[in-house]
Each structure stands twice: as C-alpha cells, then as structure tokens.
Amino acid sequence: MDLAVILVLCASCLLFLSFWKQSYGKGKLPPGPTPLPIIGNTLQLDMKNISQCLSKFSKAYGPVFTLYFGMKPTVVLHGYEAVKEALIEHGEEFSGREPNPLIDKANKGFGIIFNQGKTWKTFRRFSLMTLKNYGMGKRSIEERVQEEALYLVEHLEKTNASPYDPNFILKCATCNVICSIIFKNHFDYADRDFLNLLEILDENMRILSSPWIQFCNTFPVLIDYLPGSHNKYFKNDADAKSFILEKIREHQASLDINNPRDFIDCFLIKMEQDKHNPLSEFTVNNLIIILYDLLGAGTETSSTTLRYGLLLLVKHPKVTAKVVEEIDRVVGRHKSPCMQDRSSMPYTNAVLHEIQRYIDLVPLSLPHKVTHDIKFRNYLIPKGTTILTSLTSVLHDSKEFPNPEKFDPGHFLDENGNFKNSDHFMPFSAGKRICLGEGLARMELFLILTTILQKFTLKPLVDPKDIDTTPVATGLVSLPPSFQLCFIPSRRRTDI
Q1: What does R_g of the chain's alpha carbons equal in angstroms?
Q2: What is the pTM of this model?
Q3: What distance in Å separates the CA atoms of residue 210 and residue 403, rounded to the nearest whole number?
Q4: pLDDT bracket for residue 4 (50, 70, 90)
Q5: Is the dihedral of CA 446, 447, 450, 456 positive or negative?
Q6: Residue 71 has pLDDT above 90, yes or no
Q7: What CA–CA distance (Å, rounded) separates 328 from 54?
Q8: Which residues are recorded as binding heme (predicted)?
C-alpha cells in the first residue's frame, strides 16, 4: 500500500478518536454501556425491540443512563419516577424536541410536532385553543364522533357478518373526524382523494417505524446518498402536502372572516391579522405542516388503538361480555353512547384504559432534548442533549400493575369495582409535550368502541386462546398483527 495512503488513514483514525474522546468525555452524563467510536452503542441495540434492550440496560446502570446513537449521547429515562421528575417536575427544561433528520428534511423547519422553542409554543397554544373552540371536549365534536361511529356501523353492516379486516374502515373513521375539524369535510369511504390520503398516511407510518429509518436517523448522511424507503416517504409527503394546499386554496377563495368554519379558516384569519408583521410565523407553509401533523397524529394512532382494542376484545370474550352488559344497562339499545355515560360505566372505562396501557402504542414517545444545561440527579446534562423516555417502563411497571404483560381491566378497578385512575397511565406522554389531541383520542376510543359493541357481536375466526396479540413492530409505533373477525348484528336495524 502506498505510504501516503497509510498516513492519511492513520491521520483520519487519530482525528476520529480525538473527536470521539472529546465528545464522550464532555459533561457529567449518567453512566451507560461503553460505546464504540463512530457507531456508539448501535451494535448493542435490537432496533426491532429497543424497549427490551433499555430495560436490560436499566437493570445494569439504573433508571437514568446514557446511550450513544452514533456519536450522539442520548440520556434514557426509565421508570415512572425518572420520567415524572423530568417531564413534569422539570417540564420546561425537558420540553425541547430532538430533531428527526428525515422529517426535518421534509418539513424544512415548519409545523408543530417536530418544532420547538417560541415557534412550537405559539402553534401549540393556537392549536389547543382552536381545537377547543371547535369542540374538543365539547358537545359539538362529540356529535361529530357519534355521527362518524354510526356511519362506520352502516359500513360494517355491509360486511354481512363475513370475515373482515377492520384496519381500513377504522382509519376512514378516525381520519374523517379530524378532517371534519380541520377541513369541515366528511369524506365518503370510497372517495378517491380520501383513499389516496389514507394510503399515504398508512405507508409513511410504516416507513417511519422501520429499523431502516431508525438507522438513517442515527446516520443522517445516508439519507442523501443511499436508495431506500426514505425516498418513498418523501414522495408520499409531497403528495399529501399538495392535497392539503389545495384545501387551503379553496378556503382562501371562500373565507368569511366573520364566520370561521374550521381550523383552516381560523389560521387564515390569524394570517390576515398578522399580515403587516414581517416576523409573523402564521404562514401558508406552517399551516400545511400543522395540518399534516394533525392528520397523521389524529388518524394513525387512534385507528391503531381501536384496531388493537378489537383484537383484545375478541381475545378476551368474558371481558367483552361484561362491557356489553354495562352498555345495555347504562346506554340501552336505542340511543347512541355519549361521553356523559362514561362516568356510569366503570368497567368499560377500565377496559379502555387497559387497552391503552397494554398495547403500549408509542413505546419511547418522541425524543425530547433539554433546552439548557441542567443538573438532574447529580448529573450535568448539557443543553441540546437528546432525551429518550421509556413509556413502556411506566405503563408496564409491575409495582403499579401486577402482571403487567397480562391484559387485565382490574388494573384500573378498586376492590368495589369502581374505576381507579393511575398516575402511571401515560400513553400520551406527560408534561409540556403531552399529546395535544389526548381529549379527542379518548373520546373516539370510548364512543366508537362502545357503539360497535352496542350494534354487533364480535366473533373471532379462531379459538380466542389461539389469538396472538404480540405487536408486529415496536419501533416508533406498536402495531397489532393483521386479523379478521365477523361483525354480527346484535339486533335488527329497526330496533336501533
């Protein structure tokens, strides 16, 4: 080998090692497994089941430890006490959002979910206020969810009690609810534009949950130079944003500032009010990404929870029978379930909480980062450090939930059969970054599942004990395995 090549290689290695030593030795971070130069702890992690890996590391290094994803240190919070202390007691310091290279490249700094600082606070405040004004937690949105649930029932009746995979139709229902809030549209389940949007949201969620994307986000230089599913993500992303922009243009053409119809109108009115402010962040580009954020979060997570809930209900027929009995007793056969009924349905409420606890939908939440240097449990965590919160360790805490791997509504019932809440119930995360659609998601889960159980008997295709509820992906989102069941009408339509 040429001497010059050898010298260049040696110099490069020394440079990498020097940089690594400087990075690794910086600050007083929590302990953790020894990383390798350049690749960090990557080889020690099973990207398909990272939650299990974090649990093992926690046993060795405690509830707060450091991992290196590539050259970047990441502080992991494992267990309720550590998560609560960071996200709730020190909520402001831990409210930053860790950049996601793939999504950041697509969004170009716009939007809400992957934004931070003043921009994030402005849009989160605006979104919460607007969603509240347009019914989140109020009767108006409740009526929309009730109507969508009945529309869903009509389509399930058309299956004629034949084996049916509910994945698609549940996505239609949850997407339509959020569309009614942001677009003032209700789409037919056969509408071509609507189906294209659903396909994009579904495929992009699967891409984001894949080990390949986790690897690309660890080594973002790969995104620009290698082929792979990330390129399909970018194409889907552009198509969805074109659809959204078309809706915005339609609203601009028909806007009445004295009579806002939906989220888009409210945002456009704010744009008009701020049009002379050159620093205003209320722009069309931000509106596009915010709507895309709301669509993605409001469709995929809720529909997946509902689908997983149906799988667990057919797996546990005794649980389902108790829920149906409570629905018949409290709601009856003739009226639609409403949110007011929930307080009189402790067992159903417990089942819905247990579904969310058991499925552990977003095992690691979305990564945070600290907004400035902070002393936390005698460690000095530098500003900008990535924070990973293990929601699995909270939702599956054996001290709070005996036999946490078992589906048991008793986790949320006291000895008298009354519903009992738990501070460990964090499926929506906690603190400043808690999911802004939590209220809507809870409403959809209660109203849609109880309406389905009011109208249908759920019949599995196999013996319940043979039903597998193991998630098929535990990257970004835990997805249930594909399944079919029969929706058998419980009463004649004239009785409804």
Answers
A1: 24
A2: 0.89
A3: 29
A4: low
A5: negative
A6: no
A7: 44
A8: 435
Residue 395 structure tokens = 């939702």
Which residue in this structure is represented by tokens 């499925």? 359
Helix axes 139-157, 438-455, angle to 10 degrees: 40
3-state helix, strand, coil in the chain (%, to 5): 55, 10, 35
Check: CB of residue 372 under 8 Å from CB of residue 117: no
Q: Which two tokens stand for residue 80?
A: 């309720």
Mean confidence (pLDDT) of the chain: 88
Question: Nearest 5°: CA angle at 33, between 209 and 399?
Answer: 70
Residue type, 177: V
Token pair recorded at residue 225 = 């130079």
Phi first, then psi: give them for residue 31, nearest 5 degrees: -70, 170
Q: Are 234 and 215 in contact (CB under 8 A)?
A: no
Structure token pair of residue 220: 């973002």
Start-to-end Cα distance in the chain: 83
In contact, 41 and 68? CB cutoff 8 Å: yes
- Let me know: does 480 contact 308? Beta carbons within 8 Å: yes
Token readout for 441 is: 């998601």
Q: What is the pLDDT of residues 462-494, one digit of tens each?
A: 999 999 999 886 567 888 999 999 999 986 433
Structure tokens at 46: 């099973």
The two three-digit tokens of residue 116, written as one number: 């931070």
**pLDDT at 112 (0 to 100):** 86
Q: What is the DSSP letter of 298?
A: I
Backbone torsions φ then ψ of 340, nearest 5 degrees: -65, -25
Binding-site annotation, residues for heme:
435
What are the C-alpha distances in Å from 112 to residues 117, 292, 383, 387, 430?
10, 10, 21, 18, 17
Paired residues of 76 in beta bridges: 65, 388
Nearest-CA neighbor of 174 among 161, 189, 164? Answer: 189
Nearest to 264 by CA among 147, 173, 180: 180
